[in-house]
């Protein structure tokens, strides 16, 4: 059972992730690395939407379907895009390499915190 300490630690890690992404933009006066925040915030949505569409009945558990696999694929694509986008921008010279590193680390902290929140605060099924 997650408590107040878990909320505080995860909030602190989320704040560090946002700080790294914002600093990767502000220190070099180039705000393209902020696109990473959008990809990591949108990343859990396909999993959630496809999970809701695949199992509309609360009483019957489905073993697996194509829509759940599609949701996982889209989530993986968005997470990979959050890593690849700064790398492509740094390779093309649009952002600095150190901004790329800060943006990737901050984005991974943001997405990891979102996943941790959903793991710790998932509702338990009672029968």
Automatic annotation (TrEMBL):
GO terms for biological process: late endosome to vacuole transport via multivesicular body sorting pathway. It holds the Pfam family Vps55. It is a multi-pass membrane protein. Keywords: Membrane, Transmembrane, Transmembrane helix. Its main location: membrane. One of its GO terms (cellular component) is Vps55/Vps68 complex. The chain crosses the membrane at residues 7-25, 31-49, 70-91, 97-121. It is found in: Membrane. The keyword Aminoacyl-tRNA synthetase does not apply. InterPro entries: Vps55/LEPROT. The keyword Heme does not apply. Belongs to the OB-RGRP/VPS55 family. This is Vacuolar protein sorting 55.
């Amino acid at each position: 059972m997650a408590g107040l300490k878990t909320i505080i630690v995860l909030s602190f890690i989320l704040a560090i992730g946002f700080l790294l992404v914002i600093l990767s933009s502000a220190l070099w006066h180039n705000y393209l690395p902020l696109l990473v925040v959008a990809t990591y915030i949108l990343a859990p949505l396909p999993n959630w939407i496809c999970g809701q569409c695949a199992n509309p009945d609360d009483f019957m558990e489905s073993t697996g379907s194509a829509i759940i696999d599609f949701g996982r694929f889209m989530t993986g694509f968005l997470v990979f895009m959050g890593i690849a986008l700064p790398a492509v921008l740094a390779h093309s010279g649009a952002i600095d390499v150190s901004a790329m590193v800060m943006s990737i680390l901050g984005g991974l902290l943001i997405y990891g915190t979102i996943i941790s929140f959903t793991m710790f605060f998932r509702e338990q099924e009672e029968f």
